[in-house]
């Protein structure tokens, strides 16, 4: 999704002076600049603006939303499955804001050991705990003037959630070992692949923090809900791989593309990118066909299938829009199958104008694996 490396994992946790055994206390501010630079390098975003790939209506709307949000300093909560590009969205918001030339500090709350998370976030004074041989700036202070991105915020311990809430309300941090408050001016963007509302109900996430973070909620759609972007993403990633590996003319056959389109991509854009890179590494051919695709893709396994027609209506309710979209998609798919992928003939078969048919095809994002990709 987001281009330069949107699928790379590298959310940060800084560990200045950490030895090869793990986290270390470090010296005051030591390694902060290199941490920021290395974080951008790991995510492939150094020197390049974050942007979103795709022309599906959901992505067009997302880009419009990002542009509007970037003009403000509001707290943003980004939701979405793993691999959809939540950090890319966060970087795009930061890049388009008045803080775009200031630090962007990504923090993976799930990656930092819980016992070290408070020190990493807020900093500490010398002697604050065993091994704290020097004072050290925390990540909130490092983000001063810029943006801090709290990825997987739902994994933050409850005790630390209270302190995060205080920072959001007072815009002050108190390093461990001191009562001295340090004023910070930064934008906060949080993200989670968990349902935080459900986590609140289960008492695993503070309700007051949830509502404090959800000033502006954004949901990044999974790839299976915007399948019409798959060919665009395939070409984008192959172009990047061509540039990286000597301009080899890699491509995907129409039949293989149909399989890629029909697969549900539980790992989303990151899974698609990794698959394409795997093909370029392991294949001696420049054109990738169905035989080179993984078995799970060839079998058309829909690991995260959409709701099917006939779902019982119970007290929990249903997603009627998704069910209707799925039903339309099945008829569109069958019409394309019967007409050999001819859009005009398929539209006639369904009693639709070609423009209406094309719009529904883009919205539903479906195509059978055994018919040509419609042109």
Order of helices and strands: HHEHEHHEHEEEHHEHEHHEHHHH
CATH top level class name of the largest domain: Alpha Beta
| Helix percentage range | 40-55%
**Can you tell me the CATH topology of the largest domain?**
Rossmann fold
State which percent range the strand residues make up: 5-15%
Low-confidence stretches: 1-49, 301-310
Given the C-alpha coordinates, what overall shape results?
Answer: elongated
Number of domains: 3
Largest sheet: 5 strands, parallel
Any idea what the CATH superfamily of the largest domain is called? P-loop containing nucleotide triphosphate hydrolases
Structural class: alpha/beta
Alpha carbon gap, first and last residue: 23 Å
- Would you count the extended β strands for me? 9
Distinct helical segment count: 15
Mean pLDDT: 78
Task: Summarize this structure briefly.
The protein has 375 residues and is an alpha/beta fold. It has 15 helices and nine strands. Strand 4 and strand 5 form a beta hairpin.
């Amino acid at each position: 999704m987001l281009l330069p490396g949107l699928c790379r994992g590298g959310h940060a946790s800084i560990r200045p002076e950490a030895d090869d055994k793990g986290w270390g206390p470090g010296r005051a501010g030591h390694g902060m600049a290199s941490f920021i630079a290395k974080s951008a390098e790991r995510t492939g975003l150094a020197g390049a603006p974050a942007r979103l790939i795709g022309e599906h209506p959901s992505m067009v709307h997302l880009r419009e939303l990002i542009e509007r949000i970037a003009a403000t300093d509001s707290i943003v909560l980004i939701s979405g499955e793993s691999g959809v590009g939540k950090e890319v969205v966060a970087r795009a918001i930061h890049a388009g804001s008045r803080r775009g030339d200031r630090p962007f500090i990504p923090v993976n709350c799930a990656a930092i050991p819980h016992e070290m998370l408070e020190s990493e976030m807020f900093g500490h004074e010398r002697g604050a705990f065993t091994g704290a041989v020097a004072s050290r700036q925390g990540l909130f202070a490092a983000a001063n003037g810029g943006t801090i991105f709290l990825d997987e915020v739902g994994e933050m311990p409850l005790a630390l959630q209270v302190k995060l809430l205080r920072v959001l309300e007072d815009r002050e941090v108190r390093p461990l070992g001191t009562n001295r408050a340090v004023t910070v001016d930064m934008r906060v963007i949080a993200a989670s692949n968990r349902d935080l509302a459900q986590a609140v109900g289960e008492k695993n996430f503070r309700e007051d923090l949830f509502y404090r973070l959800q000033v502006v909620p954004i949901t990044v759609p999974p790839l299976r809900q915007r399948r019409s972007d798959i060919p665009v993403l395939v070409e984008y990633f192959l172009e990047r791989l061509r540039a990286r590996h000597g301009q080899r003319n890699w491509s995907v056959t129409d039949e293989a593309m149909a399989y890629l389109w029909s697969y549900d991509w539980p790992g989303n854009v990151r899974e698609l990118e990794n698959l394409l890179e795997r093909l370029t590494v392991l294949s001696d051919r420049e054109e990738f066909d169905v035989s080179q695709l993984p078995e799970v893709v060839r079998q058309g396994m829909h690991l995260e299938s959409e709701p099917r027609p006939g779902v019982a209506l119970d007290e929990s309710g249903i997603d009627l829009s998704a069910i209707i979209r799925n039903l339309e998609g099945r008829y569109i798919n069958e019409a394309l199958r019967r007409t050999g992928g001819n859009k005009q003939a398929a539209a006639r078969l369904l009693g639709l104008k070609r423009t209406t048919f094309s719009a529904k095809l883009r919205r539903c994002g479906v195509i059978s694996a055994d018919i040509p990709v419609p042109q």
